[in-house]
Structures are given as structure tokens and as C-alpha cells.
Automatic annotation (TrEMBL):
SUPFAM superfamilies hit by this protein: Winged helix' DNA-binding domain
Cellular compartments annotated: Nucleus
Gene3D superfamilies the UniProt entry points to: Winged helix-like DNA-binding domain superfamily/Winged helix DNA-binding domain
PANTHER family assigned to the protein according to its UniProt record, in alphabetical order: RNA POLYMERASE III DNA DIRECTED , 39KD SUBUNIT-RELATED
Family: Belongs to the eukaryotic RPC34/RPC39 RNA polymerase subunit family.
Keywords associated with the record: DNA-directed RNA polymerase, Nucleus, Transcription
Protein name in UniProt: DNA-directed RNA polymerase III subunit RPC6
Organism field: Vanilla planifolia
Length: 234
């Protein structure tokens, strides 16, 4: 699904009472970002009980749906049924029903790691193709997901990223192409845990992050935009 939601399809709407129409138009205008109930009341000027009643009616008519906002699950958000939540709301592909899908992340990490161990050297495309053809998952994994998982394995020192030489173990891969192999020491299990399995894909400092740089993945844990990630700023 697109992180910006999908465009609404035209359909014939039922005749709505004035308050419901007002509320529905507001919710529809927010598209894939949805809107919090408190903001609905502010923007429409409708009293609480009127908003509550209208929301129930619109849901019963299958015009709107409630969605989980990963940044504040206590807040009730609604959007039109034509849209899917933007990643800013849903957390993107690593979240399911508003919760970090730890099981999916761990299985995907295992699959990526096993492929590299089997073939000694692999590219992101190799791993993605193998996982797609394996049928391990009911839904298709994207190339970006594989890239983020491989990046997390590099940060955990389970894999290392390097360029192909085209010789020996690298003979299957075009010289100069980015690829991955087992880390020379095989990683350090003592430093690895559930937090280390979370990709850094949504970290705003990702482009500045290097293993030995000012911003680097270490053992200090911080929360960034709903993610829990290992990061240390030296």
C-alpha cells in the first residue's frame, strides 16, 4: 500500500443528515492522515454527543472507520473507508494493528541471515527474490523492507556490507556491486536483543549514522517517531 493512502473511488453516497454530512466532509478531507475526535469537535463546532452519535451512524453506513495512531493509541482517529492510514499514523510496514510486528521482523531477519549463510555472499536483490519465491510470508515483502533488515543485521555485526570483487565467493556478483556476507566474528550475541532487531528506516538521523561516527548505533536506546531504536550520539 502507498504511504500516502489511496485515492478515493467515486461512489454514490446516501443522503446524510446535516451534522453527519458536515462531519463526513471533514473526515474525507483529511484523507490518509485521518483526524482525532477532539479536532473534529473544534473544527465543526458540534457538541460532544452530536459528534459521537454522528460517528456511530457514519460507521454503521460504512463511510468511515476508526484507525490506530501508533504515536498515541488512546486517541480515537477516524478516516474515510476509501483511504488506508499513512505510515505516519500506522507505523508503516513494520506495524500490524498499531503494534510493532516483532514476530514478522524476527522471521524476516532469520530468512535474510540464512540466505547469506547458504550462499556466502548475497545482494539485496538476491535475498528479496529468494524470500519472494519461498512463499514463507502470505504478503509480499518489498525490496525496501529487505534493505532495512539487512541494514539492521549489519549494525548488529551479524553481516558486513562490502563491494563485490567478482572473484572467489564474489564470482556470481558483478564487480563493484554492494553485497553482504557473514561478519568475520559472527556477531556478538551478548549485545543482541529484541531492540536490535528493529530497522532504522524511519530514523531522521539515518543518513548521518555510521558505525564509528559522531552518530552511531550503540547501546543507548531512544524512541524516534514511534520506533524504538539503538542509537548513540557521541
Amino acid at each position: 500500500m502507498s504511504s500516502n493512502g489511496k485515492l478515493p473511488q467515486k461512489r454514490k453516497l446516501p443522503q446524510l443528515p446535516e451534522n453527519e454530512q458536515k462531519l463526513y466532509n471533514l473526515i474525507l478531507s483529511k484523507e490518509s492522515m485521518g483526524i482525532w475526535t477532539a479536532d473534529m469537535k473544534k473544527e465543526t463546532g458540534l457538541p460532544n454527543n452530536t459528534v459521537t452519535k454522528a460517528l456511530k451512524s457514519l460507521q454503521a453506513k460504512n463511510l468511515i472507520k476508526d484507525v490506530v495512531n501508533i504515536h498515541n493509541k488512546a486517541k480515537k482517529f477516524y478516516m474515510a473507508v476509501e483511504f488506508e492510514p499513512a505510515k505516519e499514523i500506522s507505523g508503516g510496514t513494520w506495524y500490524s494493528d498499531g503494534n510493532l510486528d516483532v514476530e514478522f521482523i524476527n522471521i524476516l531477519r532469520d530468512q535474510c541471515r540464512m540466505y547469506v549463510e547458504r550462499f556466502k555472499v548475497a545482494t539485496i536483490e538476491n535475498v528479496w527474490q529468494s524470500i519472494r519465491d519461498s512463499g514463507v510470508f502470505n504478503t509480499e515483502c518489498s525490496m525496501q523492507q529487505i534493505k532495512e533488515i539487512m541494514g539492521s543485521l549489519v549494525l548488529d555485526k551479524e553481516l558486513e556490507e562490502l563491494n563485490s570483487t567478482g572473484i572467489g565467493d564474489f564470482s556470481r556478483i558483478q564487480p563493484g556491486k554492494k553485497c553482504y556476507k557473514r561478519y568475520k566474528d559472527g556477531g556478538n550475541p551478548k549485545e543482541q536483543g529484541i531492540l536490535s532487531s528493529i530497522p532504522c528506516g524511519v530514523c531522521p538521523r539515518l543518513t548521518d549514522c555510521t558505525p564509528d561516527g559522531i552518530i552511531s548505533p550503540k547501546l543507548v536506546f531512544i524512541s524516534i517517531n514511534g520506533w524504538t531504536s539503538r542509537c548513540q550520539v557521541s
